[in-house]
Amino acid sequence: MTESPFRAKAGPAQRDEARLPDEDAAAHVAGAEQAAPIAPQHYEDDRGGSPEQMHDDAMRQSADVVDAAREYPDFLEQFVDNWDASPDSATTQQQERAVASPQLLRPRPLEPTSGPRRWVHTMTGGLINLGPSAAQVREQERMARIQRPLRGAHVTTYLCLKGGITKTTTCIGTALTAAQYRPEAVVAGDFNPDAGDLAERITGREGLAGVNQLAQQVDAVASIGDLSRYLYSEGRLTVLPGEPDPKLGESLTSAQFNAVIEILSSYYSSIHVDAGTGITHPIMPGILARTDTLVVPAAYSITGAKRAYETLAWLRSNGFGRLASSAIVALTERDLVSREVDKNAVLAMFDGIPVVKVPADRHLADGAQVHLEQMQPRTREAFAEIAALIADRYPA
């Protein structure tokens, strides 16, 4: 058998011991120890010097280390940590130090954007910053709510049993606001069977049509380019026009509505539906089934308040309690309202439901094309609050 090159070669004495039996070998070793006591020997280091000198040198080095540890504790501690730590723990410590790195920039205080606070900030070149006002803070919080992330499609329907109480105006104002501040594209669709004017009031163009043609050709839509043939845009808001001919509008069914919403939700996340007043119309079951959030327009007038209340009551008694319990009431103020109307009693009718007061606005009273920038600030704020309440209902 070939001898391993890594095995040490035995000397003569070792070869003799290898040939002895176990007992004889033990006795031989014991006798050798008694016969030849080991005499003390003096060793010298490669650098020279006796053991006493080496001991003195080691003591001096130890003293130096102690002094260095006192003078530079943090410096030596980092090396001790590295010696004791395994590679994995060292990596973990580096990651922890990276996460816990100090913030080198001071947080910049918010600057006022309007009012006397803004004037003081401007006149002093920014040296005096009184911070944002309470109204500015509320506005920033509202904008953050409006911009809440949305996964999937969310359908908001504007519905009331009575017409003429700003249902379409509320839909337009809210959709325009959402389109202005939300990151994704927003679409508003006119599904009013009674020749709605949603598209005309958004784009300013008359005679637009789209919903019936899309409902009939929905199977042929395979891209956003195909879908765009039925849509129109005004700024960042996209609109699907209704049917100007009431006879054709009456022909829409729940199945057709579902097909249209299905194709819209493939390309749009925020969908606003302007529904009609006929709650028993054949299209209405499909609309209510696909609705995620319901906005009920109302007014301080006796009829406007009662019809909104009756709309919620009908939903509760006909299997749509989820929509009634999460609904939003848009209460539009009117210039010509009798003083005999108890406004507090009107608000009490919607106890437990969020109510947003939309002030009377001359820009919205004429029924012409709607522009956000031409509304009064309080009106824009009201529509922004409705948009924020809708976003609050987005799934987490």
Characterise the protein shown here:
The protein has helices spanning 12-19, 22-35, 51-71, 73-84, 87-99, 115-123, 134-146, 167-181, 198-203, 211-216, 224-227, 246-249, 254-264, 284-290, 302-317, 321-325, 343-349, 362-365, 377-392, and strands spanning 154-158, 186-191, 232-234, 237-240, 270-275, 293-299, 328-332, 355-358. It is an alpha/beta fold and 396 residues long. It has an eight-stranded mixed β-sheet, with helices on both faces. Helix 7 (134-146) packs across helix 19, helix 8 (167-181) packs across helix 19 (377-392) and helix 13 runs parallel beside helix 14 (284-290). The longest helix is centred in the first third of the chain and has 21 residues, at 51-71.
Strand count, sense and barrel status of the largest sheet are: 8 strands, mixed
Classify the helix fraction into a percent range: 40-55%
Shape: globular
- The whole-number mean of residue pLDDT values reads 78
How are the elements arranged and paired?
Blueprint: H1 12-19, H2 22-35, H3 51-71, H4 73-84, H5 87-99, H6 115-123, H7 134-146, E1 154-158, H8 167-181, E2 186-191, H9 198-203, H10 211-216, H11 224-227, E3 232-234, E4 237-240, H12 246-249, H13 254-264, E5 270-275, H14 284-290, E6 293-299, H15 302-317, H16 321-325, E7 328-332, H17 343-349, E8 355-358, H18 362-365, H19 377-392
Parallel strand pairs: 1-5, 1-6, 2-4, 2-5, 6-7, 7-8
Antiparallel strand pairs: 3-4
Helix pairs in contact: 3-4, 7-19, 8-19, 13-14
